[in-house]
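Model it.
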Amino acid sequence: MVILIICCGHDWCYLPLEGSWTWGGNDVFGLFNLGDMGFSDFAGSGIVHMAGAAAALAGVLLLGSRKGKYGPNGEIRAIPGANLPLAALGTLILWMGWFGFNGGSVLKLGDIASANAVAMVFLNTNAAAAGGAVGALILARIIFGKADLTMLLNGALAGLVAITAEPSTPSALQATIFGVIAGIIVVLSILALDKIKIDDPVGAISVHGVVGLFGLLIVPITNPASTFIGQIVGAATIFAWVFIASLVVWSIIKLVIGLRISEEDEYEGADIAECGMEAYPEFIR
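Modeled.
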């Protein structure tokens, strides 16, 4: 039985079948084996992050854009976040948690070799995140003329997502470079999705999906046990399965109870409609 769990606070999505084909080493519907093709994803750039983005994309396509996000002539209207300090704190918490996420994927710490492996994973995880933040910040400064904090935060997360597929084999310099490229990619991806009117309020599809794919594709650069063909086929398998399965689930939810609150409630805010109180009373006159 396929079980789909989506936690909307963060775009994690996990399907047992997809996990069994990748980390579990089972055949994909009995047709082919990703491990035999040279697929490798150390801690889940594709298995976790790209899968979550695929589920999110299916939901976004059915849900549609927020009211007022796009003008009648196709113009893009930014809807800024309400609290950037909290966004920065949330990113820092994620950054810290990623040491356990990637480091824990070594699976043990009982001998010197494993301890050294964990230390290298920690170093590369931090280096990639820092590189991603710097890369996104510089590109945002070039494009917008301002140091965009939201892009910096997404750049740090992009670096983390990119290095998650293989944090144990790159050097610290390679991890930093991968992070810088991921930070650049996420800025360009966020802008591109906006242009084609895919409304992703926090850039999660770009951070976890586009950069998750990038993370998979760079694994063979430092890990000779993997292959580009295996990574491409693995990425396509993960995305296709999760996207289609999620599209079915989202569609059923839309038909049965609906995906979207009413236009009036959307204007007033779900905090009022669902909870009866203002989430941001300081904005009320």
